[in-house]
Design goal:
Elements (H helix, E strand, L loop, with lengths): L14 E2 L2 E2 L19 E4 L2 E4 L5 H5 L22 H10 L2
Antiparallel strand pairs: 1-2, 3-4
């Protein structure tokens, strides 16, 4: 449904006929770590996340999994076949 409280005119999962069903009845503004993300919506009432109603909780235990401004480094580990490694060790290589 379309939000009628905080993000007026925006499609919202938490909105129903009786109003906003999110904890406290409204979305919470973004935190400093969110600055630069593509999912920020700037409204007259403040800046809000389009993906999550309370961004502070997403940053509590590390990086937000919805963020678009922080690049994650993927470590490539060499995969070793245990059978081949044991044969090499037995052959003395």
């Amino acid at each position: 449904m379309i939000c009628q409280t905080t993000k007026q005119g925006v499609e919202c999962f938490f909105m129903n006929k009786s109003g906003c069903t999110y904890n406290g009845g409204t979305c919470i503004q973004i935190v400093a770590q969110c600055e630069g993300c593509e999912k920020i919506m700037d409204l007259p009432s403040g800046k809000y996340c389009l993906a999550y109603p309370q961004p502070e909780l997403k940053w509590k235990n590390g990086d937000c999994n919805f963020n678009s401004h922080i690049k994650r480094e993927v470590k490539q580990e060499k995969i070793v076949n245990a059978l081949k490694a044991s044969k090499r060790k037995a052959a003395g290589k």
